[in-house]
Every structure is written in structure tokens, then in C-alpha cells.
Design a protein that fits this description.
With 155 residues, this protein is an alpha+beta fold. The protein is 62% helix and 15% strand. Helix 1 runs antiparallel to helix 2, helix 1 runs antiparallel to helix 4 and helix 2 packs antiparallel against helix 3. The protein has a single domain, classed as Butyryl-CoA Dehydrogenase, subunit A, domain 3, CATH 1.20.140.150. A five-stranded antiparallel sheet has the order 4-3-2-1-5.
Length: 155
């Protein structure tokens, strides 16, 4: 299982998507100095040093962010069913693209309505890494499937 490179890529996708769930991925500063930040659970406004209040929920981002590590971890264990594993990785790719689109939508709406300036953080780039790792896993699974089919033709 781990000797297959696509299992390693799916494991890296799981780790990176798990890291995405930690901390905020965007910060916003208003012209008057108030600071807000975006986590996978919602949009928060800083009210003190360690206190923050929830000002908006992002249910689609939350659901997608929780599904990605779960599905990518489960996909590792379907190594004997390559066609199913390929379909699962395609679903993962679609979810990761949807995560980027919905996150961008919420960011644009927040910037429009509150005239914030956006400060990206390290977690902002994790969905793009997830897409790369998932795509590499899909390529590896497809190569295995083509290799097995070529062996079946020789029999």
C-alpha cells in the first residue's frame, strides 16, 4: 500500500488538508484598523488580544474542508480497487476546486461589502497543494490501471 507512490500522494493530501483546518487562511484589515480573519468555520472579527467573535458562517467551505481529508484518507485503502480509487480522486479534485471557488466567492463578497484589504496567510496556498498532490495520485493510479490492463492483454 505505502510502496505505491499514489498512496503517498493521497497521504500528503490528507496531511495538507488537515493542516488547512488549523488557523486562519486569510486576514482582512479595514481602513480604520479593525482586523478580521477567515477560518474554515467562518469569518471572525478580532475584539481583543485573544478574543474573537464570529461575524459570518461559511457552511459550504466548512463542509468541503471537512470532507477532503476524510475522503483522501479513505481513498488510500481502496488500492485493490483502482477504478473506484480513480473515481474517488476525481471527486477529490472537484471538491478541492469547489473549495477554492467558494473561498474566493466569500472573500470577494467580504471585500466588496466592508472595503477590507486582504492579507493571504500560509494556509491560503494549501488547497493548491492539495490539487497538485491529488492530481499526481490520479496519474499514478491511472498508470497502474493501464499497466494491469496491458498484462491482461498479454495473457
Amino acid at each position: 500500500m505505502i510502496q505505491r507512490i499514489q498512496s503517498l500522494y493521497l497521504f500528503l493530501t490528507t496531511i495538507v488538508s488537515g493542516l488547512f483546518l488549523k488557523g486562519s487562511f486569510l486576514s482582512f484589515i479595514n481602513y480604520n484598523g479593525s482586523e478580521s480573519f477567515m477560518r474554515f468555520t467562518g469569518i471572525y472579527r478580532s475584539t481583543g488580544e485573544t478574543v474573537s467573535e464570529l461575524i459570518g458562517r461559511m457552511v459550504p467551505v466548512t463542509v468541503i474542508s471537512l470532507l477532503i481529508p476524510l475522503i483522501s484518507f479513505l481513498a488510500i485503502f481502496f488500492f485493490k480497487k483502482r477504478s473506484l480509487q480513480m473515481k474517488i480522486t476525481l471527486v477529490l479534485l472537484i471538491l478541492e476546486v469547489l473549495l477554492i471557488i467558494t473561498g474566493s466567492f466569500y472573500t470577494i463578497e467580504l471585500v466588496k461589502s466592508n472595503s477590507f484589504s486582504v492579507i493571504p496567510e500560509l494556509n491560503t496556498f494549501f488547497p493548491f497543494l492539495e490539487i497538485i498532490f491529488t492530481f499526481l495520485a490520479y496519474i499514478g493510479i491511472r498508470k497502474d490501471e493501464m499497466l494491469i490492463k496491458s498484462y491482461d492483454r498479454l495473457r
